[in-house]
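Quick one: structure for this chain?
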Amino acid sequence: LEITAVRHGLVSAWNETHPHCLVQRTDQIIEVNGKTLDMHGPATMHEELGRQQVLCIKLVRAITFSVRLDGRGGKLGLCFDPETLQITAVDDAGLVHAWNQERPGYALR
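Got it. Here's what it folds into:
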């Protein structure tokens, strides 16, 4: 679940009191009160967010960086979701695997 905007409410109040760890647009909600997208689905997570209760929310933030690979050196070695173009797998061979081995802090997954 991607945060598309931070409006007036609980999250903006959090941001005012926690300037060192702001919730930002494009952050991803991956868990709400122990309910995860993979195990419970988006509808359950939305329900949890809408309840009048204490919320424990886990977020992740994607970083953006550019990768330049020379395709003349072989195949990328990636599998994609055809609808979202999200990477679903990285083969153990290919240019991306080599990139990941050399730069584990910026590994493509």
